[in-house]
Amino acid sequence: MTNTVDKKEIEQFSSLSNKWWDISGPFSALHKMSNARIEFITQNSTRILKKGNTGVNLLDGLNCLDIGCGGGILSEKLRRLGANITGIDASKSSIDIAKEHAKKSRLEIDYKCITTSELLKVKKEKALNKFDLVIASEVIEHVYDRRIFLSDISNLCRPGGLVIFTTINNSLLGILLGKYFAEDVLKILPSGTHDVEKLISPESLAKEAEQHGIILDSFTGFAPTFKLKNIIDKEFGNFKLSSNMQVNYGAAGIKL
How many CB atoms neighbour CB 201 within 10 A? Predict the structure, then answer.
């Protein structure tokens, strides 16, 4: 295990791995956020796309790395848009679920139980500067050493490639709503899913990423929608892109 991985975090996600595709289970928020995440990714991907890519083949030809892919919720959506997907996760049980679901869905996705640092060490894969698009969605708030994690991402992404993060803001609302309200009140996330000490603000993420040659210049918020039924059922509705980044946000930019 490299020091980018928090063993306790991996054990928790591994214990829930059979729930990845339960849309009302512990990963329901990721399912409901997935369309908004894809919207943000596709908006920013226009910077590196080949001319003529549209619609269902928008990401055709892009080599994409989905870091912390879990059971494959985001990877499968990206593959359906035409991207060549490598999904990595340090949880073997999550990767096993991802492989099984992709097979049932008839989607060709290269899943690996490996960390970013380990991927860079596998010479036969030639991972250095390999990927056009590197995504770390709801991951950076779980790593043990953010500095090494950002360095790995920079080394995995080709110069001129696109890097995208989504995470929870280290703000008062981010802490109250993204952690305590979601975990302890609505209980849509398992208790202990997030560690407040690991949350990071958009400003701090931009500064830290720049130290590794990643220039984050596109930011958006992810805002949950609520209907009466959602409140009664103690759940989020779907998410939409928003100018308010106080809770969940996305950050995107080019690797120099």
Answer: 17
